[in-house]
Structures are given as structure tokens and as C-alpha cells.
């Protein structure tokens, strides 16, 4: 075979194997190999590295899209000094993601604005960065999706979807009361992940008040039972971070500044 037809065959084979990044990089890499007198292994290593990098980038993008995180928060963005009721050592332990190994759940409980969503999203971010399938949803969104799925005959598929991710974040449980059908959907999602996959859940209601969100206190109790069985619970109280910032700003504005600029 001539040099040219070998080249054509090689390109064809790379395309057939769907190694499109390598196929595209082939002419450049061949030239580089010639110029630098690379051996066969060195050339092949470089060519495959191009494909591996492209596959890895695609995988990351797909994990990222799948996760649907509402914000780019990281644990390092969280100001622990501002929220002394959050156990920093425990958050750092969770950030190692060991809790995913035995399907431990994480509950952030507290009033609005104390950083529950931020912490949940930051853990989800760590989980994505470690390559785990991770998905963020709010309770309202989850029940709406389940409701639609039931109407469209996709219930089983949707349940499988929520069972799939290594970490499922369910944000804002308790802001809206959940009618029986909605509670049943949430209950099923929690039940099928029980001891299989971690849930990170945020709620404004202390566990004692969960009966209030659900018509049926038995369902609430059963849900809590499964969630809490293997779990880490943060009870965050204190001021809303936004309110605190707002107050600090108004105080700065009110305080007369000294002539040298100091307060
Ligand atoms: P929650 O979910 O508890 O209502 P969020 O997580 O949405 O509160 O936080 C409200 C806002 O305050 C967000 O913009 C968040 O980034 C910020 N915030 C809250 N707590 C902290 C904190 N300890 N450090 C930095 N930002 C915080
Ligand atoms: Mg929130």
C-alpha cells in the first residue's frame, strides 16, 4: 500500500471507531512525529491522548449539564465565620465525599437565607468534580416532574431517573405544602434511594414539623425514618446572610466616618 492509501485507511478506521478527535488530529500529529523523529509508541501515545482528553471533556460537560446546578458555589465560598452554627469540620468531611460510599444522607435544616442551598450546591459541585453523576432539583420541581410523568405514562422512567444519580439534591422541602399525590412522589423517590444513593435535602422545617407539610403524618414519619436512618443533620440557625449583609451595609452608611476615613 502506498503511504497515501495507508493514511486514508487509518483516517477511515479512526472515524469508524468514532475516534473523531484523533482522526482530526492525525495530520498534525504525523507531522509533529516526523519533525521531532518520534518513535511509534510516542506518536501513538500523543494521538490517543488527544482522544482521551476529548472524551474526558465531553464527559465533564455532560455531567455538568445533567446536574442542573442553580449556582457555581463551592465550599470555599462559604463564610463559616458568618455562620457559627455550621460545623466546619463536618462540612469538610462531607467534602471528601466519603458519605456517598454508604449512601448517607445530608440534611440542612434552617430558616431562609442561612446558606442551606449554598452548602447543598457546594457539595453537589464537589461530587461533579469527582466525576459522580449528580442532580439538583427543588421539591416543587420534583413533584411537578413526577406529576407530568404520571399523566404522560412515564412514571417508571422518571422514578428510574431520580434513582440514578450518585447524589440527588432536593432543595426547599417544606416551603410549599405537598398534597397527597406530591407527597407520594417524594416518598417513592426517597424510598427507592434508601441505602442505595445519597440525598442531600434542605428544609426550613425542623423534623418535628414535617407532619405539617404532608396531609398524611404517617407518610411524613416514614420519609423521615428513611432519610434520617443514615444521615448527617445540620441544624442551622441564626440570621439570614443577606439580611446580615444588608444590615452591615446600612450600619456602615449610618456611622459617621472619621476625617481620616476610619469608622
Ligand atoms: P437558604 O437556602 O438557606 O435560604 P442560600 O443558600 O440561598 O440560603 O443563601 C442565601 C444567599 O446568601 C446566597 O446568595 C448565599 O450565597 C449567601 N450566603 C448564605 N450564607 C452564606 C455564608 N455563610 N457565606 C457566604 N455566603 C452565604
Ligand atoms: Mg435555599
Order of strands, widest sheet = 2-3-4-1-5
Counted by DSSP, the helix tally is 11
Please indicate the percent range of residues in DSSP E strands (runs of 2 or more). Answer: 5-15%
Basic shape:
elongated
Give the low-pLDDT segments: none
- How many β strands by DSSP? 5
Instruction: Give me the secondary-structure category.
Output: alpha/beta
CA(first)-CA(last) distance: 83 Å
Rounded mean pLDDT is 92
- N-to-C SSE string, H for helix and E for strand: HHHHEHEHHEHEHHEH
Q: Assembly type of the shown chains?
A: single chain
Largest sheet: 5 strands, parallel
Percentage of helical residues? Answer: 55-70%
Q: Kindly provide the radius of gyration, computed on alpha-carbon positions and rounded to a whole number of angstroms.
A: 26 Å
Question: Which ions, cofactors or small ligands are bound in this entry?
Answer: adenosine-5'-diphosphate, magnesium ion
Could you name the key traits of this structure?
5-stranded parallel β-sheet; binds magnesium ion; alpha/beta; single chain; 5 strands; binds adenosine-5'-diphosphate; 263 residues
What does this structure look like?
This protein is α/β, with parallel strands linked by helices and 263 residues long. The protein has eleven helices and five strands. Helix 8 (180-193) links the parallel strand 3 and strand 4. It starts with a helix and ends in a 9-residue tail after the last helix. The structure holds adenosine-5'-diphosphate and magnesium ion (MG).
Amino acid at each position: 500500500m502506498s503511504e497515501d492509501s495507508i493514511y486514508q485507511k487509518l483516517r477511515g478506521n479512526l472515524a469508524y471507531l468514532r475516534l473523531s478527535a484523533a482522526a482530526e488530529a492525525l495530520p498534525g500529529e504525523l507531522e509533529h512525529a516526523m519533525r521531532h523523529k518520534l518513535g511509534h509508541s510516542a506518536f501513538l501515545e500523543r494521538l490517543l491522548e488527544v482522544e482521551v482528553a476529548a472524551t474526558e471533556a465531553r464527559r465533564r460537560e455532560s455531567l455538568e449539564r445533567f446536574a442542573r446546578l442553580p449556582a457555581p458555589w463551592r465550599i470555599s465560598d462559604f463564610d463559616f465565620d458568618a455562620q457559627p452554627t455550621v460545623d466546619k469540620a463536618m462540612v469538610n468531611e462531607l467534602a471528601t465525599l466519603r458519605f456517598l460510599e454508604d449512601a448517607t444522607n445530608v440534611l440542612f435544616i434552617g430558616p431562609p437565607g442561612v446558606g442551606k442551598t449554598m452548602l447543598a450546591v457546594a457539595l453537589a459541585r464537589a461530587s461533579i468534580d469527582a466525576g459522580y453523576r449528580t442532580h439538583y432539583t427543588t421539591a416543587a420541581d420534583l413533584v411537578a416532574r413526577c406529576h407530568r410523568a404520571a399523566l404522560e405514562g412515564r412514571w417508571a422512567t422518571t422514578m428510574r431517573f431520580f434513582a440514578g444519580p450518585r447524589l440527588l439534591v432536593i432543595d426547599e422541602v417544606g416551603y410549599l405544602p405537598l398534597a397527597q399525590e406530591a407527597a407520594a412522589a417524594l416518598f417513592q423517590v426517597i424510598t427507592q434511594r434508601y441505602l442505595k444513593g445519597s440525598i442531600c435535602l434542605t428544609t426550613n422545617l425542623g423534623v418535628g414539623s414535617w407532619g405539617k407539610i404532608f396531609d398524611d403524618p404517617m407518610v411524613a414519619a416514614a420519609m423521615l425514618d428513611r432519610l434520617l436512618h443514615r444521615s448527617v443533620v445540620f441544624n442551622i440557625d441564626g440570621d439570614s446572610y443577606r439580611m446580615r449583609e444588608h444590615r452591615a451595609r446600612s450600619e456602615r452608611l449610618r456611622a459617621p466616618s472619621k476625617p481620616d476615613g476610619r469608622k
